[in-house]
């Protein structure tokens, strides 16, 4: 028994020793990482490596002791004219946002003032009618006084509203926004196609200032006259003058030789006789209607205010007050709800567009020298696009105009298909 215990003790000891030996053998000490400090390469070695990688045979000579402050500064490719044109571009972009915001504000003026004045007028007419229905004493005085005050307030508000014409103001700002966006695109195109010159900067500056003058933002002192003596087209471009210069005949795209100058003169003649004349006639008509309505509204509310002051002294006073108040509300709704002022401005802008077309074609004929056929074709395409026509339709229009001179008849077609 003792021998068995001794043998088992020896066996366990040997196992313990072997296990401990095995465990110790499995434990490993971690190795410390190797740190490599980057050694700065000389500029010469770096350039040589780049030359070898790119397959270059020549090397760029650099001095070993070259310092960063001794290197030549990088020159900007932007010229002085381009920098000025970018400055004008930023100003034009700001004006687009300004005219857009003010246009929305003035459109809200038209809606709010129209609703407010109509509610005041109808309320005053109702009070005058109630006061005439057998009311006596203090209630009669209260209703009469309130009706008179409301009619007087409506008269004053109508005088201001008819003077500034909010619907026309909103249309002016919409047109200004569109024209400033057009100028913005023209400047961007100039910067993208070629290096701008001082002449480009001067032209962009003149166009910006001309637009500012044509569509002013403030109301006091600079507002466009809403009721001029004569209807005049809008002018938003600078006046240019130059020495007359003829250009060469060009070869048309259809293969037939033609005189582009004669074609453009015929198109200009159609614009003058048909489009410009028609929009001037419509503009004069809209201006006369707007003048009549602008006078009638405050006049009717003034008559209603006078009639309401005598309510209770006769049946005629209440009839005058209620009838004049109802008519004033109708006139006001037709004038400002129908936005007659906006219609006048729309005709003024359209007439200005055709005037600009006439001047542009005449100036191009006098000043531009089309030495290449591509210039003539580009000019013809621009005119066709502005009139909403294709090149073949534009040539047919010029042909019809020329034949009408020989026949002694009048052409029954407008030059523009857009308006």
Q: How much helical structure, as a percent, in the residues?
A: 55-70%
In spatial order, strands of the major sheet run 1-2
Overall radius of gyration = 42 Å
- Total strands: 2
Query: Which class of secondary structure composition applies to the elements?
Result: mainly alpha
Question: Which word captures the global form?
Answer: elongated
Distance between the ends: 126 Å
| Unreliable residue stretches | 1-27, 46-64, 71-75, 241-257, 369-374
Largest sheet: 2 strands, antiparallel
Number of helices: 11
> What is the string of SSEs from the N terminus onward?
HHHHHHEEHHHHH
Mean pLDDT equals 80
* Percent of residues in β-strands: under 5%
Overview of this protein structure:
It is a single chain. The chain has about 425 residues and is mostly helical. The chain has eleven helices and two strands, in the order H-H-H-H-H-H-E-E-H-H-H-H-H. The protein has helices at about 1-25, 45-55, 80-130, 140-165, 165-195, 200-215, 260-310, 315-335, 340-365, 375-385, 390-405; strands at about 250, 255-260. The model is unreliable at about 1-25, about 45-65, about 70-75, about 240-255 and about 370-375 (pLDDT under 50). The chain has a two-stranded antiparallel sheet with strand order 1-2. Helix 7 packs across helix 11. InterPro entries: Chloroplast_duf. This is Probable F-box protein At4g22030. It comes from Populus euphratica.
């Amino acid at each position: 028994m003792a021998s068995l215990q001794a043998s088992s003790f020896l066996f366990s000891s040997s196992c313990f020793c072997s296990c401990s030996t095995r465990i110790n053998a499995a434990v490993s000490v971690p190795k410390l990482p190797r740190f490599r400090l980057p050694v700065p390469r000389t500029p010469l070695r770096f350039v040589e490596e780049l030359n070898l990688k790119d397959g270059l045979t020549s090397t760029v000579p650099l001095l070993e002791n070259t310092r960063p402050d001794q290197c030549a500064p990088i020159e900007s490719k932007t010229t002085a004219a381009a920098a000025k044109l970018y400055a004008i571009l930023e100003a034009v972009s700001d004006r687009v946002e300004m005219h857009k915001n003010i246009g929305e504000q003035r459109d809200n003026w038209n809606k709010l003032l129209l609703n407010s004045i109509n509610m005041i007028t109808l309320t005053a007419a109702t009070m005058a009618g109630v006061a005439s229905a057998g009311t006596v004493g203090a209630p009669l005085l209260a209703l009469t006084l309130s009706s008179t005050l409301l009619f007087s307030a409506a008269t004053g508000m109508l005088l201001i509203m008819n003077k500034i014409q909010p619907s026309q103001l909103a249309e002016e700002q919409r047109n200004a926004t569109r024209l400033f966006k057009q100028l913005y695109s023209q400047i961007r195109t100039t910067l993208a196609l070629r290096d701008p010159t001082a002449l480009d900067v001067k032209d962009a500056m003149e166009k910006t200032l001309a637009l500012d003058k044509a569509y002013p933002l403030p109301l006091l002192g600079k507002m466009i006259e809403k009721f001029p003596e004569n209807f005049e087209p809008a002018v938003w471009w600078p006046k240019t003058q130059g020495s007359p210069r003829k250009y060469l005949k060009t070869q048309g795209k259809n293969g037939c030789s033609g005189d582009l100058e004669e074609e453009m003169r015929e198109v200009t003649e159609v614009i003058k006789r048909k489009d410009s004349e028609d929009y001037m006639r419509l503009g004069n008509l809209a201006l006369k209607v707007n003048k009549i309505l602008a006078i009638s509204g405050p006049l009717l509310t003034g008559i209603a205010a006078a009639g309401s002051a005598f309510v209770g002294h006769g049946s005629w006073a209440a009839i005058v007050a209620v009838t004049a108040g109802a008519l004033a509300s109708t006139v006001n709704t037709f004038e400002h709800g129908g936005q007659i002022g906006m219609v006048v401005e729309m005709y003024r802008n359209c007439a200005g567009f055709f005037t600009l077309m006439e001047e542009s074609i005449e100036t191009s004929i006098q000043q531009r020298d089309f030495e290449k056929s591509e210039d003539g074709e580009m000019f013809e395409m621009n005119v066709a696009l502005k009139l909403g026509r294709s090149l073949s339709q534009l040539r047919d229009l010029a042909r019809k105009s020329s034949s009408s001179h020989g026949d002694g008849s009048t052409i029954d077609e407008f030059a523009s298909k857009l308006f």
